[in-house]
Specification:
mainly beta; 6-stranded mixed β-sheet; 4 helices
């Protein structure tokens, strides 16, 4: 009898272990995360879900052209199409070259009358067009413009404007830019390239500042000077401005902006001075390491505030004056 009792005792002991090891059921068990074994905070995930829904409901930009090219004097249309434009959001335009706000909503924020904004609602595609207009464009208007919406974080769309001057194309086709060297008649009298360059020199590079020799502007205005160097086979190493014979940089005073484009053919540099005073009067020179400098005089008078920007055609000797928004 004793040997048969041992298996029964083993079976009873195993049953007791299984019963005691089973967890007692709870009336309200919490969810269980199988990866961490910790309780899941569903309130946190619900918050994230609400934030994601808000982000999906925010405005966004539709696909439009990001580069616009016009001829000098034409009207430039810079497109910006925003979808899902709900209440509380505002579209703004800014010129990136000098970080100038041009418009906020449908209101032009610049004193330059050439700028304007056209708002067209397109409910069929749930979009709004906010097109920036620039009338009577000049080459100084070339650059990048930013259309932005005050979302969190801010979203922006950049459009590049290229204003082409037809006279630049005429100058590129000019016979003065072509080689006038005669062909070799034989190998015996062929000269080296350096000897040929000395005997048949090309036209010397000349810096030309757009506009008249004397610029008259009112105190508080913004003045823009543009200098071009043509007939360049290679770009200049240095291209800079001088005031009264001294190098003039953005460190001289606040409100100065300099732009330079050193390329073969025609190199350009632009000088912007905002909120001019009588201290800004003087002679300004455009200088380079390969061109003869050009000089103009700036005269600042105490009068009603305005703005001035001069443009000049060096081929036809015709000068014109255009507006630039006061900063």
């Amino acid at each position: 009898m004793f040997p048969t009792t041992i298996p029964c005792l083993h079976l009873m002991l195993l049953c007791c272990v299984l019963v005691m090891g089973k967890p007692s059921p709870r009336s309200n068990p919490a969810p269980w995360d199988w990866q961490t074994g910790e309780q899941v905070d569903y309130a946190k995930y619900n918050k994230y879900e609400e934030e994601m829904k808000k982000m999906l409901e925010q405005p966004y930009f539709a696909r439009v052209n990001n580069k616009t090219a016009v001829k000098r004097g034409e009207v430039a249309f810079l497109p910006c199409r925003v979808k899902e434009m709900n209440e509380g959001y505002t579209v703004s335009w800014m010129r990136l070259s000098d970080v100038t706000i041009l418009s906020v909503g449908s209101l032009a924020f610049s004193s330059d009358q050439r700028y304007g904004v056209v708002h067209v609602s397109r409910p069929r595609i749930q979009a709004d067009d906010w097109t920036l207009l620039i009338n009577t464009t000049t080459t100084m208007d070339s650059g990048k413009y930013e259309c932005s919406v005050n979302t969190m974080p801010k979203i922006s769309h950049v459009v590049e404007l290229v204003v082409e001057d037809p006279m630049d194309i005429i100058m590129q086709d000019s016979p003065y830019t072509k080689s006038t060297k005669p062909p070799f008649t034989s190998l015996d009298n062929a000269m080296t390239a350096s000897e040929e360059d000395n005997q048949y020199p090309g036209p010397s590079a000349l810096a030309v500042i757009s506009g008249p020799a004397t610029h008259h502007v009112s105190s508080g205005s913004t003045i823009g000077l543009e200098c071009r160097i043509s007939h360049l086979s290679t770009p200049p190493t240095s291209l800079y401005w001088k005031k009264e014979g001294k190098v003039f940089t953005a460190r001289d005073r606040p409100g100065i902006s300099l732009e330079s484009e050193k390329v073969p053919g025609v190199s350009t540099t632009r000088l912007f001075i905002s909120h001019v005073t009588t201290d800004d009067s003087g002679q300004y020179s455009c200088c380079s390491d390969i061109a003869t400098p050009d000089t103009v005089r700036l005269v600042v008078t105490r009068a009603s505030p305005g703005s001035a920007l001069t443009g000049h055609n060096s081929c036809s000797n015709i000068s014109s004056t255009h507006g630039l928004p006061a900063l």
